[in-house]
User: Fold these one by one.
Assistant:
Number 1:
Amino acid sequence: MRQKFNLPLQPSQVKEGVSCRLCVNECKIPEGERGLCGLRENFKGCLRGADSQKGSLEFYFDSLPTNCVASWVCPGCSEAGFPEFSYRLGPEYGYKNLAVFYNGCSFNCLFCQNYHFRETLTSLPQKFISPQQLVEVIDDKTSCICYFGRDPACQLPHSILTSKLALKNKKGRILRICWETNGFLSKNLLKEMVEISLVSGGCIKFDLKAYTESLHIALTGVSNRQIMENFKEVVRYIDKRRPPFY
Ligand code: SF4
Ligand code: SF4
Ligand code: SF4
């Protein structure tokens, strides 16, 4: 299936390849080839493609309340977080969510619900959006950002940078930052991501595909060991939630 889209079948691990450590695959990419996600390649010994300044993504607005998977607990759609993190005690009618849909994924799921993303990645992405460009679309009625997609993990530095810029520019307005991910994240960036979400009143949503490692490998092509470690780490932050959350 991936061959049809000109994507690698496995993360490359050649000794002399260029390293990318943005997700647990930790590809070592040979000259002229791409990492498993298809977002970056080894071009003459350097990584080329998506990076912290160049996001391969689509974005759009969703009116609140949305169908976000955390809608039953989040300040945008429930009574949680009012008044510090929500304009309304209940669904935040009249406001909207900036949905940022990142291209590329670190898994190779048997039943991928987004398989069509591979059509945009038959070659290295050519069109990019910078953090500054994304921040410029945020207006007074945007009260949250959701980073999701295929999976946002392979472009985490871009979403972290966008979040920092957006929070710096929010001028007293509410702006929650949320991520929805398969959890296959670099441990180094996990803390920064969770802390941004925590201080802004946002949520981290983990899409755990399976509990048993062998089943996870069968469904996605990769082990879930680091995902479970990451999940444990994120769960530790639950105690740091203070009222107005409950
Ligand atoms: S982000 Fe992409 S290139 Fe980097 S390690 Fe993960 S799959 Fe490989
Ligand atoms: S992005 Fe976050 S705050 Fe906004 S609707 Fe989704 S889960 Fe709720
Ligand atoms: S994690 Fe989601 S987008 Fe990625 S391969 Fe699996 S189903 Fe598809």
Number 2:
Amino acid sequence: MPQSDNIVFNVLSIMRGTTVDGPGFRTSIYLAGCNHRCPGCHNPSSWNKTGGTPTTLSKILDIVEEEDFNVTLSGGDPLCNPKSTKFLIDALKRNGRNVWVYTGYTWEEIIATPLLTDTIRNADVVVEGPFIMAQKDPDLLFRGSANQRIIDIQESLASSKIILWQ
Ligand code: SF4
């Protein structure tokens, strides 16, 4: 295992000051790699785990500090590289950031998989579930299809039931 500062992420892009991936201005980090293959996916080129630009953890953290916004991790699916994503989430939380995570896994799949649960354990909100074309709705806030839920991670883990973010 490398030193955590030297972990390299395959970054598709970093959006600075976006307002579409969660509340307020945010730094959105799009990580390469997704196994879900949702029909109608907005970005199939994000599926390749080796796509994007290799970027160290410390470089990502520097950009986040420079922008001084809260953070959203998206992709691709950050939970398709759970071990490295956990390092990133934990580092962002140590720096006091509110962290949202987008994933194609459902909440039920996450809590049934210890590695995935451990990965998101310290984050704030997960926008979960695959994109389902038949449930696509452009008017939905912060999500693409109506099956996807915006879940408060800390409240849900503490109460062992799904508590939606409000
Ligand atoms: S989870 Fe997201 S990135 Fe992955 S296939 Fe589905 S829509 Fe595309």
